[in-house]
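Residues and backbone
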Amino acid sequence: MSSVNNKHLPRHLIVDAKKCKALCSCGYEHKIPSVKVVSTEDAYSVLAKDCAKIYAKESVLLLDDENTHLAAGALVSELLEKRSLAYQLVRLPGDSVATDKLAEQIYDLSTGHSLIIAVGAGTINDLGKYVSDKRGIPYWSVPTAPSMNGYTSSIAGIKVKGVKRTLPALPPQFIYVDPQAIQNAPLKLRQAGFCDVLAKSVSDLDWQTESLLFNGTYCSLPSAIVNDSESTYINHPEKIHQGDPEAVLGLFEGLLYSGVAMSLAGSSAPASGGEHLISHFLDMRENLTGIEPNLHGIQVGAGVVLSAVCYQKLAATEEKELKNRAKKIFEADVRNIPSVWGNLASEVEKQFLKKRDRLLQLDAALSINWQKLKVLFSKVGTPDFFIDLIRRTGLEMTLPSLGISKDEFFLAAISARTIRDRITVLDISAHTGILKGAAKETIEMLS
């Protein structure tokens, strides 16, 4: 396969075995994704050429939406036609959400096809790789924006019976990137991507905390992989606002490696913790409140600030202030689920009950490990640090600008931990009694 590499994007997203071993702290073997990236101005032509070479006598399912069709899907479709390739175009509405029902529809449409090509970002990418994994056929990705980190991950975010789940899905074999398309993505999508990758600063601490308390699964490798590309966009976020090519492509590279980090970990833990639960909560509540959620990454940005406030308060909490309240808090959370979730309550409760045993062990686990935990908690940047970084991208980052009421954000802060079985800073904060205060403080900062 021929391609002209863009200097900001790797040709192969494969971690060198020696480097992987040097950076790994867990001692376990990591499954290294063999995703290949073609980054060139004629990437879509290369895609069509590759497709004709491999699938000349077979049929392809091309998936996009009303927005990504204009950005790249129409051109990809035209190039496939010029190669006389058999393909079926499925164009979704621009506001589509990745749900189990929609995934089932696309699965049915994929019958008889040998490859799925998805043109787009979050929803389109999740649906494409999830369905191709279920169908047992290869998946190719055509990114249209640096807006999220799921391009290279081994998971897909799907709403199952109304509850946001991260489900297994094989990463794409190939990613075809037109650097100009990434650079020209709308500012709001770049801001969303910046917030999404910034979440690593707090989600990695969530993972370390759960590992120390319960399962010992933490590994330094995923975080180290992401660190390699951070300098191109973290130090000067105003360049994301300005559309600086190096910064925008650096951000995109960071998002790709963030997805690789999740694949190496075998879960979303390196890049998704309590801060992501805030966004999932707001997404899931749309059917109950009628409030259309903002972009996933931008909502994650508000969650990052909340997590930072929580960690700051936890770092200042003394061991003598810890109380035996695990059972009381858990039972109260279970009682509150119906009032928060309505017809989704039974599905939410199923997820929450998966971490029941760990939550009930928090009294002893926190007491034994508190001094070690405080060292971890103190490593997180201040809330003002994160707010400044986000606002330097040109994003206002206030609750009114995000379309989130104070009451809804407060509810998200104190209730989002019930929707996922992972232990995060939100669980630790609730147990230590600082979560409500942290939520109120965050609301003041973002008002």
Notes: The chain is about 55% helix and 10% strand. The CA atoms of residues 231 and 250 lie 8 Å apart.
